[in-house]
Amino acid sequence: MRYRRLVRQRAALKRVEQRVGRFPSYARVRRAWLTLEPWTIESGLITPTMKLKRTELAGRYAREIAALYAQDRAAAGSGAEGRLGSGALGESAR
Which domain holds residue 38? Predict the structure, then answer.
């Protein structure tokens, strides 16, 4: 089960990477993290008008967001260009 989830996440990240390849480098997403947890009104992550509750999202995924920025800083320090999703695959622990 966990393996299939990982395969689906990698496939999704690969599709995103292919689509953003046409964007200029300054407009590309460098890191992404996927969760299978639905963002619903009931979970408190979106409003009834389907807008993101950024404060709640930032709080719930603070650890994951910090890890993505840490990977970006590490890649910048090594001179390596960040690849979308490299090391950014993860599952929600919630």
Answer: 2-78
pLDDT digits (tens, 9 = 90+) for 13-60: 888 888 888 889 888 888 888 888 899 999 999 999 999 999 999 999
DSSP readout, 72-89? HHHHHHHTPPP-TTTTT-
CA distance 25 to 69: 17
Nearest to 39 by CA among 51, 27, 22: 51
Q: Is the pTM of this model over 0.70?
A: no
Total number of domains constituting the chain? 1
Distance CA 11, CA 39 (A): 21
